[in-house]
Amino acid sequence: MLSLRRMDVSEVWPFVKLAAVVVLGGVAFWVLRRVRSGWVRIPARLLAAGTTTISFLVLVLFAVTEQGCSMRAPALWSPDGGHLALVRWGMQGALGADGAIVRVRPRGGWSSEIVFRGAGWAGSAPALRWLDDTRLEIRYWDERVYEHRCGERVEGVEIVCVRPAPTSS
Asked: Residue 12: pLDDT above 60?
């Protein structure tokens, strides 16, 4: 169901956390059957069953929308191989403008930091290129930028944003 083929390890963590809630709820439901007092056992098992069911449904919903509503560009490694830049598009369809998210993480890291979030789709997504081992250039064309960390250092990488001037015809 999840397309792990192109999903980075840092993007898998939300699913792992939700799956852990499902498993813990199931274990709690099973363990609570041994409680002798009915006025404790029944509400506790109902709570565990409800938590497990809701978490499972949310996990399935996230997995389906992740598969159907997003695309990823191939990962872009820094020249020295010490950092990784990731681009993901969220395709909203009739719900609104498509969005692009750029993340950076160090080699061997388990989590990534969002450095750019803005409008974009596969045809006009932000273009990434490494200027050197620790400087990442993000070139974007759409003025609708929701969040950026341009000029900052994130995970040891300086983020350089460039918005070319519109060409007149």
From this structure: yes
In a domain, residue 104? The reply is yes
Is the predicted pLDDT of residue 143 greater than 90, yes or no?
no
- Contact between residue 47 and residue 55 where contact means Cβ atoms under 8 Å apart: no
Encoded tokens for 118: 């803005």
The answer to whether the predicted template modeling score (pTM) of the entire model surpasses 0.70 is no
Overall average pLDDT of the 22-44 stretch: 87
Query: Residue 167: pLDDT above 70?
Result: no
Tell me which residue range forms the domain holding 95.
71-162
Give the integer Cα–Cα distance in Å for 152 and 104.
Answer: 12
In sign, the C-alpha dihedral spanning 148, 151, 154, 159 is positive
In sequence order, what are the residues at sequence separation of 6 or more whose Cβ sits closer than 8 angstroms to the Cβ of residue 164? Answer: 139, 141
Strand pairing report for 135-139 and 157-162? parallel
